[in-house]
Write a structure and sequence with these properties.
Shape of chain A: elongated
Helix content of chain A: 10-25%
Number of strands of chain A: 10
Number of helices of chain A: 8
Structural class of chain A: alpha+beta
Largest sheet of chain A: 6 strands, antiparallel
Order of helices and strands of chain A: HHHEEHEEHEEHHEHEEE
Strand order of the largest sheet of chain A: 4-5-6-9-8-7
Distance between the termini of chain A: 45 Å
Largest interface: A-B, 50 and 50 residues
Oligomer: homodimer
DNA sequence: TTCGATTTGTTCGTATGTATT
DNA sequence: TAATACATACGAACAAATCGA
């Protein structure tokens, strides 16, 4: 079998929680420790039942929530992280794996691991589920569901500050009556008004956001949340129903009142499952439909 | 650096594609080959750019499609698979990982890895997305979205054989006019008719399925497909829209014709993305809604 | 353009922990 | 108790992509 020089570890990190003289360092030869940060061991006594990689994952998630690395920025390399946290590189990879699967991080071979940013692409494929109605999905060519999604153009219709109604307060986890910003946004697809969005966000989380700033944003709304307020929407939860269109909604959509529309109640969350936005979308599904591909995964979604 | 005794491998499996005398077996020491099956190396010349674990994953998927292991049965253990395919156990785990994530396989520590079966639970959490309308999602208690789903009771309304219309033929990837079974099923939730399903399946894939066999099934419909015909639905794709309820649908649902209903077009697929079923569901969303939790993952969904 | 350093991706191997039978 | 099987963790080597000198 050869090779007994390997340090016979027995849980490397049994230093109990805080404190723990860093220099001791088992594993990975003593030398070359120059310039290296003192390792910040995970508080992990091995008896807790929590796997190491999950503890690290949690640590990374918290760091992300605190904005330690900005969207688009690179995390420290895997080898650096493995040193900083005194775990093996495999454990680091495992911790990152799930964050990548959740689209919170993005890995690029040869470059690094990056915090996912709210680009138009991401929005389209991860949060925007309304597509042109397709009869005859091409088939035969193997790539059935990469529907040619289209970037909507938006126009702001209302922007006002108001006290949170009960339902929205509950959605956002804030007190009833707390100030919220209520935004009404009309979305066009193919030159046609298709969706009316009613967006509610806590005014405390988005201070000094006003009509002008909202309209002058350069990218998507979630991009604005992220770039201007450091809030990354990473997940959303939607409940759909078919209802008769209220008159106030019907008008901007060019529908007769009472016409069936798709009503979507979405709650959008940031890192620690904290709600950020409550949104009701009214969708005219005469020419469009809601696509729920639960789920083609994305094993091979090149590009 | 010490330790040069490690076998200097250079791609173990370079045996070129088919044929390849099995006995030659590079890697994994010569001994202990008793009783072991001759390894069936993956045709993998290392230059193809296809990772080993993905080749193995494909191999496993094909084996599943052929019914090599029945639903509920255990696969060979990871160590056995690693011997059979002459890859490391880590590579086996990696290949299985994605199948587990896709709910095609289920791992149980200490027991084995099993082919997912269509139990009621699986149906409810993976394919059935209509839940009672919730105002005030409990919040506060950390487990927000494990909605208390309810098993629907069903009653068959129609069962007939007919030539496939164009749209359904396309959905199912069969010739127009080929025989299909068309099934109409009414679903009740809480003693109330909520969903009308119109199901279309190829009669060639489900020979001798008749009204009686369909009604006498013991479990879910997908369970019937699986147990009686060896066809496992592993994925589905749904397109939703809001429409005015046709009279023929309105009647069984106890709705006025023209009332808004949610229309869901689903195509259900088996292993190699082969379509199995085309279904249109009409949902009365006055007391229920469609839940699209894209996606809470299921990192910690104990139970 | 080439080359080397850096970083993620793949594969192997080993040891040990924990659940099941 | 012992054997089996999956789960976690570590480490090594090499492949492939990227980027700057």
């Amino acid at each position: 079998m050869a090779n007994d020089s390997v340090t016979r570890r027995m849980r490397p990190n049994v230093g109990e929680a805080a404190g723990a003289a860093p220099g001791s360092g088992a594993g990975s030869g003593s030398g070359s420790a120059k310039e290296a940060q003192p390792p910040t061991p995970l508080g992990h006594d091995g008896t807790s039942g929590v796997p190491l990689y999950r503890a690290l994952q949690r640590r990374l998630t918290h760091a992300l929530a605190e904005g330690q690395w900005k969207p688009g920025e690179a995390l420290p390399s895997e080898s650096r992280l493995s040193m900083q946290y005194a775990v093996s590189i495999g454990t680091v990879r495992r911790a990152i794996d799930e964050l990548v699967a959740g689209k919170i991080l993005v890995r690029q071979q040869g470059r690094g691991t990056f915090v996912a940013a709210h680009t138009a692409d991401r929005l389209l494929f991860h949060f925007f589920h309304v597509v042109a109605r397709s009869r005859g999905s091409t088939r035969s060519t193997e790539r059935p569901v990469t529907a040619p999604r289209e970037m909507p153009s938006t126009s702001l219709r209302k922007f006002r500050r108001m006290p949170a109604p009960a339902g929205i307060a509950q959605d956002l986890g804030i007190a009833r009556g707390a100030p919220v910003l209520h935004i009404e946004n009309l979305l066009e697809l193919g030159g046609r008004a298709v969706i009316l969005d009613e967006i509610s966000i806590s005014a405390r989380i988005f201070p000094d956001l006003d009509r002008h700033r909202f309209e002058q944003r350069s990218g998507t709304i979630y991009g604005l949340y992220q770039q201007a307020y450091g809030i990354s929407v990473v997940r959303s939860n939607e409940r759909l129903s078919a209802v008769a269109c209220p008159a106030s909604i019907a008008q901007p959509l060019g529908l007769a009142p009472g016409h069936p529309v798709l009503s979507i109640r979405r709650i959008a969350y940031t890192y620690a499952d904290r709600p950020v936005e409550s949104r009701v979308s009214w969708v005219d599904t005469r020419e469009h439909e809601y696509l729920s591909d639960l789920w083609k995964n994305d094993p091979d979604h090149e590009r």
